[in-house]
Design brief:
Layout (H helix, E strand, L loop, with lengths): L3 E9 L7 E9 L2 E6 L7 E5 L3 E5 L1 E6 L15 H4 L5 H17 L2 E8 L5 H14 L2 E6 L9 H14 L5 E6 L8 H13 L3 E6 L9 H7 L7 E5 L5 H10 L2 E4 L1 H6 L7 H6 L5 E2 L11 H21 L11 H7 L2 H6 L17 E5 L11 H8 L5 E6 L2 E5 L2 E2 L3 H19 L12
Parallel strand pairs: 1-4, 1-5, 6-7, 7-8, 8-9, 9-10, 10-11, 11-12, 12-13
Antiparallel strand pairs: 1-2, 2-3, 5-14, 14-15, 15-16, 16-17
C-alpha cells in the first residue's frame, strides 16, 4: 500500500458543512488532507469511487463484543450463564470475530463493553484481538455479571491505563455499574478513579422499567455528572433525569434493536430530541440484534415516526417534526464519535481528520437508482453495499473483501463457541441439528 490514496469521483457525504454530488478525497498516511474536485497526487494509489457514496465510517457507540459467539441465539440465556466459562483463548476468538464483523458492515469505531473474564490472560486476549482487528476502538472493561467486588476492577483499570497509553487506535474508558439508590458511595469511588486516570465513564441507565426514576437527577445533585459521561439506553428515565442529562452535558448511546428485543423498552428518542440531545447509536448485544448500523438507523427513525403518527391519529395537536434521514445518519457517524469521546479525531470528512471512512456501492439492484444519497443510506442500503472500509488510512475492506484471515478467525470462533457452550450446558451450533 502506498502512503497516499486518492478516492476519485464518488458522491462525497462529508456530513460536515458541504456534501458533494461528485468529488475526490485525498488520504496521506492516516489523515485526510483534501476533499474537492479534480484532485491530483503524485504516487497515490487511485481508487475509482464512481458509483459509490464516500462518507465517514459508522461509529458503534456500545457493543458487548464478546457476545458475538452467541449471535442470533435470542434471549433464552444470559451472558451470566456462559460468561464464567470463557477462557482467554475464547475471549480472543469472540472479540476478534465480533470486531471483524463490525468492520465488514462499515463500522470503523466500536465501543467494546468487555465484561468477560478477570485474569491478566483475559485482558491480554482482549487487547490482542483489538490490535489484530485493525479497527478503532474504545475499550470499556466492566465487572463480569458474576463479580462481587469492584476492587479487582479498579486494579485492572489502572493496569490497562498504563498499558494502553499512547495507543494509536485504542482508547480506554471506564464501564461502571448502573446506578442504584444504595450505590452512591461505590459509584463515587469508581467515578473518581476514572477521572483520576482521565477516562470517559460509560454506564447503563434506565434499563429496568420498575426501577425508581430520578436516580440520574440525584447524580446531578451530587455533582457526579459531566461531559465525560456516556449513558447507555435511558429507556425508562423520568423527565427530571433527561433534564439533568441535558443540563450537565452527558452523552447518550441508544441500543434500540437489542433493547426492544430484550424487553428493555423503546428508545426515548423524542425525549432526547426535545432537549437537543444528539445520541450515538450502538448494537448492544448480537444475541438479539443485527450487528450493523443500517438496522440501528432504521430502528430509531421508524420508532420516532411511528410514535408521532400515533399522536396524529389520536388527534393530538402540536406534534413534533419527524426525524430526518440527515439527522439519523449523523447519529450513526459524527454524533456517535462525539458521544464516545473520539469526536476530536474522527467525524466529518475534513482535512486533518483521521481517515476513517467507507465507500458504499450505489449501483446495486437493492438501491439503484439513487434519488437522495442520504436517504438511500438510511432507508435502503444494507451490508451488501459496503465496498471499502478505511481506518486511519488503511483499507480493512478492499473492493468488498475483508483484508483479514477470515478462515482463521472463523475456526477460532467455532471452536470457542463449542467449548463454552458445552461448559455452560447450552445447545448451539452443530449440536442443535435435529431441533430446528
Amino acid at each position: 500500500m502506498t502512503a497516499k490514496t486518492l478516492l476519485r469521483g464518488g458522491c462525497v457525504l462529508t456530513l460536515g458543512r458541504v456534501n458533494f454530488a461528485e468529488a475526490d478525497v485525498l488520504i496521506d498516511g492516516d489523515k485526510i488532507v483534501e476533499v474537492g474536485s479534480g484532485l491530483r497526487a503524485r504516487d497515490a494509489e487511485v481508487v475509482d469511487a464512481t458509483d459509490t457514496i464516500v462518507m465517514p465510517g459508522f461509529v458503534d457507540a456500545h457493543r458487548h463484543v464478546s457476545q458475538s459467539l452467541f449471535r442470533n441465539f435470542g434471549d433464552t440465556t444470559s451472558p451470566a450463564v456462559y460468561g464464567p466459562h470463557f477462557q482467554p483463548e475464547d475471549v480472543y476468538a469472540a472479540t476478534l470475530i465480533g470486531l471483524l464483523g463490525a468492520v465488514d458492515t462499515g463500522i470503523t469505531t466500536v465501543v467494546d463493553w468487555s465484561d468477560v473474564g478477570r485474569s491478566e490472560g483475559h485482558l491480554e486476549a482482549v487487547l490482542q484481538a483489538h490490535a489484530d482487528s485493525g479497527i478503532r476502538s474504545v475499550l470499556a472493561p466492566a465487572n463480569p455479571p458474576d463479580a462481587t467486588s469492584g476492587d479487582l476492577w479498579q486494579s485492572d483499570l489502572r493496569n490497562l491505563a498504563a498499558k494502553t497509553t499512547g495507543s494509536p487506535l485504542l482508547t480506554l474508558a471506564a464501564a461502571v455499574p448502573s446506578p442504584t439508590p444504595d450505590s452512591t458511595d461505590l459509584m463515587s469511588g469508581d467515578w473518581a478513579l476514572a477521572r483520576e486516570l482521565g477516562l470517559r465513564i460509560h454506564a447503563h441507565v434506565g434499563i429496568d422499567p420498575v426501577a425508581p426514576q430520578g436516580l440520574v437527577a440525584d447524580l446531578a445533585h451530587l455533582g457526579l455528572l459531566g461531559g465525560d459521561v456516556t449513558f447507555v439506553q435511558c429507556n425508562h428515565l423520568g423527565d427530571a433525569d433527561f433534564d439533568a442529562i441535558a443540563s450537565s452535558g452527558v452523552s447518550v448511546a441508544l441500543t434500540s434493536s437489542s433493547g426492544m428485543s430484550g424487553g428493555q423498552g423503546s428508545p426515548p428518542i423524542q425525549k432526547l430530541i426535545d432537549r437537543g440531545i444528539r445520541p450515538g447509536l450502538g448494537i448492544g448485544s448480537e444475541q438479539t440484534a443485527p450487528g450493523d448500523m443500517f438496522a440501528q438507523m432504521r430502528t430509531v427513525i421508524s420508532v420516532q415516526h411511528a410514535t408521532l403518527f400515533d399522536l396524529k391519529l389520536a388527534g393530538k395537536a402540536g406534534v413534533p417534526n419527524l426525524l430526518s434521514t440527515r439527522e439519523v445518519i449523523r447519529y450513526a457517524t459524527v454524533d456517535g464519535a462525539k458521544v464516545v469521546g473520539v469526536g476530536d479525531v474522527v467525524g466529518p470528512l475534513a482535512p486533518g481528520r483521521q481517515a476513517d471512512l467507507i465507500m458504499l456501492r450505489t449501483d446495486r439492484p437493492n438501491i439503484y437508482p439513487i434519488n437522495d444519497p442520504i436517504g438511500a443510506v438510511v432507508w435502503g442500503m444494507d451490508t451488501s453495499n459496503v465496498d471499502w472500509v478505511f481506518v486511519a488510512g488503511r483499507p480493512l475492506k478492499r473492493a468488498g473483501v475483508l483484508q483479514a484471515d477470515i478462515g482463521r478467525a472463523a475456526d477460532l470462533a467455532v471452536t470457542a463457541q463449542a467449548r463454552v457452550a458445552e461448559a455452560a450446558g447450552l445447545l448451539v451450533g452443530a449440536g442443535s441439528k435435529g431441533t430446528l
